[in-house]
Amino acid sequence: MDKNCVNYGSSWCIDFECDDCPVRDELQIVESDSIDIEKLRKALSKDFHDLYRPKYTTNWKAERTVRDVEIELIPFDHTKGETKMKTYEEIADHCSMEEPMRTRYIRYMKIRWADTEAQKCRNGYAFKWATRFLNGIEYNASDCTGQSVLRTLNDEQYTVECCSYDELPEQIKEDYLSDNGCGKEYASYLIVKHNGTIIRYESDAMEPEDARFYRDLSWIKEALLEAYNLGREDSNEQ
User: Fold this and answer.
1) pLDDT tens per residue, range 185-232
2) Which one of 4, 46, 76, 85 has the fewest CB atoms closer than 10 angstroms to its CB?
3) Could you list the residue range(s) of the whole structural domain that residue 59 is in?
4) Residues near 169 by Cβ (< 8 Å), separated by ≥ 6?
5) Domains identified in the chain, total number
6) Rounded to an integer, what distance in angstroms lies between the CA atom of residue 20 and that of residue 27?
7) Is 198 helix (H, G, I), strand (E, B) or coil?
8) pLDDT digits (tens, 9 = 90+) for 50-78
9) Is 59 within the bounds of a domain?
10) What is the pTM (predicted TM-score) of this model?
């Protein structure tokens, strides 16, 4: 393709038939085995990045991410359009999903299609749902069952559990725990999780004179403000 041509450098050059092309008669059919797949992917990505710009679409960043992932998954070797990924975690990582969207997507997929995870990943169905999450249309794209699952996941984003010492996760038991009052083995514990990750744990192992909001109970104020701020962040993510 001539450098003066408006289509020079475009990924469509390999099959573009322009009447004004100065080298049209010199075009040759390129065998797929001789194509540099990586260069082809980069060319396609460049075209879509040029297409999706702030002045053309408001969600241009998400559109670019979706197209890049699609290009990465294109089976240039003509192997039935299947991917080698077998888990929802691999799909999420491949799509560069960030928290809390990553956990939300994986939980949704595992609740709905846990028994066919590998199949859904190989045939592109899991990727289709990943693009829906990336574009923020997972709720509208779901049927009644899916919408119910999403509402349940919303309720699970911030959870608070009460438990005994024996019910604590091992990583918490290995940490320093207050041995005041009745002692850590006989204390009650409060575990706060956000998107399945423990973000805070507290105990009632304290001396009676320290059971004040400005002393051993000062964490309550912090936890309430923390929950409020996380709620605002989660609402902006959805």
Assistant:
1) 999 999 998 776 788 999 999 998 988 998 999 999 998 998 888 878
2) 4
3) 11-65
4) 191, 198
5) 3
6) 13
7) strand
8) 888 887 777 778 778 877 877 776 655 54
9) yes
10) 0.45
